[in-house]
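Bug #77: duplicate submission created two jobs. Keeping one. Sequence:
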Amino acid sequence: METSVTENAVDWEPVTDEPGMPPRLAAWRQKLSGKAKQEKEFRFYSLYSLVSHPDTLRWAWVLVRRNNGAPGVDGVTFRQIEQREGGVERFLGELEKELKEKAYKAQPVRRVYIEKENGKLRPLGIPVIRDRVVQMAVKLIIEPIFEADFNDCSYGYRPGRSAQGAVKAIQGHLKEGKSEVYDADLSGYFDSIPHDKLMACLRMRVVDGSVLRLIRQWLKAPVMEPAENGKGNKMTRNDKGTPQGGVISPLLANLYLHWFEVVLLRELGRGRVGAGLVRYADDFVILARDLSEPLKAFVEEKLEGWMGLRINREKTRCVNLREEGQRLDFLGYSLRYDRDLRGHSGKYLNVFPSPKSLKRERAKIRDMTDKRQCFTPVPELIARINRHLKGWANYYAYGYPRNAFRGINHYVRQRLTKHLERRSQRPYKLPDGQTYYQHLNKLGLITL
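Kept job's structure:
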């Protein structure tokens, strides 16, 4: 399955022990990780005081503020918190008091929708800022515990791991001859995780009742969205799902599928089928020399029967990449065996931005250079496009992106030429002796 880069990145960046983290918090995280690695069945029972500690809350604020984001149902913005009397210190002090007195209550989540490529809408849940800070505080404390358990085949929303790492792992399996691929697609994964089973997964490691109650509050928080008749809002409650857009949701989603990994890897080892697994959040592929029907049936029974999830069978597929014309699209990349253009015999594994990724990128560039930008100063517009192109190119720098980059360069210049020509009723006048290509370079447009 292929997922949009922006869709994957819409939640929260993994937390790492980066410079600036309070030394006491970094030490706690290191100790929790060490204990979890040494004792695989140990259950942590005294974590709430670490969550509510001022050092944890202060660093949680820093990380949440860095991610920025829209306000929740209360309409409170970061700037309002910073500008009111007492500022951030007062905000964090009140939050600490609520937590220590066990008076904290999660507020409803604001539901918004972003349009997907197929025209359907992806639901996002936006918690209020105070809930985001507490979620981040909990994540800071429990993340090292579960990270100690997570498998090497998992790459999504984890510290020090990336989509490129997942693609590289797939390459490794293919080079070992595992060319048959089971490419799975889960329907609405974040919205379909059963709460009772997720809480059971948490209790495998965390038995601090106060921390578990916080997480249960966020899972059970009502969702507020505009009513269908356009008048007012409606509230809904669910017994499934962890809102995509919540700070702690990626960690919880990783934790739930971790147990699918455990049973699948055990089955692969027992069957000696020579298969591998690569997962990025809810996107995963199984690679084998021979994908047997019993293995497929095992995967489907565990996901749907045991875990209560739904497989989208229209998008789930099995391919053999050694067959002519077959391609795997994963995380915005395409992997395909192509003939060597240098005249060498045989084929090489080509890794490049997928057709859907290029289509999305052209749509984004078209949106950035449409008629609404006519009054944007050209230097500002080009600076904005440059920032976007650098981010896009950084993501797709892995593999062999030269042809894709060349096509995007051409499309950007084509769009900007059209933009310059329509900014005025009079023809756009180029400096003497310059082509549009040279002129755009002089204006600072980068070339991928």
